[in-house]
C-alpha cells in the first residue's frame, strides 16, 4: 500500500454503559444525574473507528492519526489514561459538554473548526473517521455535518470494512437493511467514514504506546480550547426513563414438552 | 403555516417502500392537525413516476421528482444533491423522511446545506398548540425525550416500523421534475453491489414476526461438564429455519464469535442487539440463555410480546421485562420446539 493518509477520528466520551442513568432538568436543558461523577469511556463505535484508523495508518507508512474529542477536560483526561495505551494518536481536545442532549449541528461545527485548525493536515489525504452513532445522542447526524463543513461529499455510514487497493481506490462495506452490506469504491481521500463495529478486536493495552501518547496528550489537555456547545433550538418538553415494567409470569416446574407446546402455540398466534 | 415535504427514495424496482409509506402517514397526520399547512411529496430514483402514482391518493398538493440513472445508487454525494434540490423546490419547512440507511447517511448533511436542523430515529410525532413535537430515545434507548424545534427547515427521519404504512389508492400524479446537475466530483464513489449471506444462511429478517435472541448461556458448560456449542448452533439454526424468525445475539455472545473462539459461527456483530447493537422492532421476541440487567436488556425495548427461557428465575433480563419467563433448560426446550415445528412445517 503506497497511499499515505491523514486520519482524523472524531470521538466523544459517554458514561460507562453499565452505569445507571437518570435524566434531570437544569436551567440549560436536560442532563444526567451526577453526570460529572459517572465514569466515562470513549464512545464505543468511535473507539472502533480509532482502532481501524490506527490499523490503516500502520499499514500505510507515513500516515498519522489524530483523535478530536469533545468533553469536559477532566473526563477526557480520565478516558485518555486508558485509550492512550491502545494505539498511537495525537489528541485534539475540546473542552465542552459531552452529553447526549447537545445539538449535533453545534457539535459538528466545533469539530470541523478543530479539524481545520490542525497544523500540517493535508486535506487531500484526509480521511475523517468516527462512530456512525454515539451511545449518548445516538442520532448519527454529526459526522455528516462535519463532512459538509469540510467540503467532503464522499461519505459512508455504518462502515464495517475499509480496504485500499493498489491503485489507492478505497473499498468500503456499509451496513444497510436486512443484515446486508453495500459495497462501494471511492477514488481516494478525502472521504468520511462513520464506523459501525468494523472487523478488529480491541487492542490490548501497551504501556509503551501509552507513554509516547501521554507526552503529547497531557500538554494538549492543558491547552484545550473551550468549545461552546448548547442545546440551541431544541426545546425539550419531557425526558424520562421508560416507566413500563411488565408483570412477568414465572413458569416453574412445567414439563419441557408443555413449555415447548406453549411456545409453539404462542409463535403461531397473530 | 408549515410546508410539509415527504422526502422519499424509490426502491430498486421503482416502487415506494414501506418506510416511505410510513412517512406519508406521518406527514398526513401532521397536515391534518396544522391549520393551513400544505403537503408535498418529493421523490428520488431512476424513474419516480410509478412511485408518485402509487402515492397519488395521499392528498399531496404537489409531487416533485428528481430522476436519472445516477440516482439509482445509494450514494451520499448524488443523494444529497437530489434531496437538497427537492427541499429548495418545495420551500419546505418540515421535511419528513423514512429512516432508511440511505436517508440516514444523507439527510443530516442536507439539513446543514439548507440551513436547517435534523433529528433522526423519531418514533412518534404529535401536534399541540399548533406546534410539532417528536419523540426519540437517548442513551441507546435508555431514556425517552419529547421535544420541539423552532428552527426551520426541520428534517425528521422516522424510524421504520413506528407508524402504519399509508395504503391509499393509487392514481395518476402530476409530477413536476426538478432538474439536478451532477458535477464530476460527485461521482468519485460507485456502488458496486450488495453483499449478503446466502439465502439459507441469512439470519437477520427485519420483517419477521419473531425475534429470537440467543445469549452467551448457549456456549457455557452444561450439566455434563462440557460445552455443547455445536448442538446449540444446530438447535438455533433449525429453529430459525422452521420459524423464519430473525436472530439477535447478546454482546457477550457476539464478542465471543468475533474473537474466533469455537462458538456460533453464524453470529456476527450484525446480529448484536442492545447497548452497542441494534434495537429491532418485531411483534414478538423469545430470549434464550440471556442474562444481564437493564443496560443489556435495551435490545428488546421495541419488542411487543416477550418471552424468555432461562434457568435463573431471578434473571434481570426477564423479570419485569418479559411477559413470561420459562425456568427451564433452553437446549431441551428448543429441541422439543423444533420437533413440534417440524410436524407442522413443510420440509
Shape of chain A: globular
> How many helix segments of chain A?
6
Sheet with the most strands, sense and barrel status of chain B: 7 strands, parallel
Per CATH, the architecture of chain A is 3-Layer(aba) Sandwich
Number of strands of chain B: 16
Q: What global shape of chain B is seen?
A: elongated
* Cα-based radius of gyration of chain A, to the nearest Å: 21 Å
- The CATH superfamily of chain A is identified as HUPs
Largest interface: A-B, 90 and 96 residues
Strand order within the widest beta sheet of chain B: 5-9-4-1-2-3-10
Helix percent band of chain A = 25-40%
Q: Roughly what fraction of the amino acids of chain B lie in strands?
A: 25-35%
**Secondary structure: helix percent of chain B:** 25-40%
The overall average pLDDT of chain B, rounded, is 91
CATH fold-level assignment of chain A: Rossmann fold
State the low-pLDDT regions of chain A, or none.
Answer: none
Q: Strand sequence of the main sheet of chain A, in spatial order?
A: 11-10-9-12-8-1-6-7-13
| Structural class designation of chain A | alpha/beta
